[in-house]
Amino acid sequence: MWNLELVSQEGLPEDYRSGFVAVVGKPNVGKSTLINGYIGQKIAIVSPKPQTTRRRLRGILTLPEAQIVFVDTPGVHEPRHKLGEYMVKTALRAIPDADVVLFVVDVSGPPGEEDRKLARMIEERAAGPSILVMNKVDLLAPEEEGQAGEEYLGLARCQESALVSATEGHNRDHLLNLIVQHLPPGPQMYPSDQITDQSLRFMAGELIREQVLHLLYHEVPHWVEVLVEEFKERHEDLTYIEATVYVARDTQKGIVIGEGGKMLKRIGQAARREIEELLGTKVYLELWVKVRKGWLGDEAALRHLGYVLPRGGKAE
Ligand SMILES: Nc1nc2c(ncn2[C@@H]2O[C@H](COP(=O)(O)OP(=O)(O)O)[C@@H](O)[C@H]2O)c(=O)[nH]1
Ligand SMILES: [Mg+2]
Hints:
By secondary structure, this protein is of the alpha/beta class. The protein folds into two domains: about 5-180, Rossmann fold; about 200-305, K homology (KH) domain (GMP Synthetase, Chain A, domain 3, 2-Layer Sandwich). It has nine helices and nine strands. It has helices spanning about 30-40, 80-95, 115-125, 140-155, 170-180, 200-215, 250-255, 260-280, 300-305, and strands at about 15-25, 55-60, 65-70, 100-105, 130-135, 160-165, 225-235, 240-245, 280-290. It has a six-stranded mixed β-sheet, with helices on both faces. A hairpin with a 2-residue loop joins strand 7 and strand 8 (about 240-245). It is globular, with a radius of gyration of 20 Å. The structure holds guanosine-5'-diphosphate and magnesium ion. Magnesium ion binds near residues 31, 32, 44, 52 and 53.
């Protein structure tokens, strides 16, 4: 998977630690926001809509004493189509493979059946310690924190717990210390300056999808996937990107394009700004919209769009 010889281990303290930290939870609890906060850069797109994260993504944080490889996962839910099944499998596979599991919950509401199920699954499947991360504490009044925390503590038998706010940064360092304490000793797996395992090409597609999530209403974003077809550095300060926005029905195509092409233009403009920030170059972005009927339930279409289950994993 990686080549340790390529990563210099020189000058590392003898008790250096490293490992994979799977971040799992229901959709929308703030898993991706939490990881972005640690990396200090957007490596996973975020939106108020559930099921924003569809694949396993790694965010790498290198500290003087440890290297943490955060594994962002899709939210665990009852799948309604093949894409959903892929997403849930991806999330569950990350649990036994991790050195530490972060079980993220939204503490601003009471625990539900899904949290309970997931707590049990983590207990059964985790190979190492788990930490209960009670996120969105900023939405609670200080006097509510105690009781809300109790309810979740009763739910999961985790080794540690922390009340945090991923958006406000509350208890960020505290949680980081807990994670490092539970990591096994080990070498650096990635170079110190690498922050993700995703290609810039893939991240550009995700930034386009993020704008679709932000700008379109209702269910439409769930039916959208973005595939980058061309990604070329024209010269040092201009990148040419051509991408296709896939939808599952004809009516959705009209919605994505909008009246007189207005919506697609807005999506393109907003995404271009984000991609320019990511790449540090000017970007020429060309967007197409195509219908691939029912792609969320179509195995071949999913493969074409790059949904291939990560290998390994001791459990399904
Ligand atoms: N108030 C509040 N909102 C949060 C917090 N963390 C995440 N959110 C919001 O919750 C929504 C879902 O976040 P996201 O990171 O995509 O959740 P994920 O599906 O678990 O990865 C977004 O609108 C975030 O801005 C938090 O600590 N406090
Ligand atoms: Mg996410």
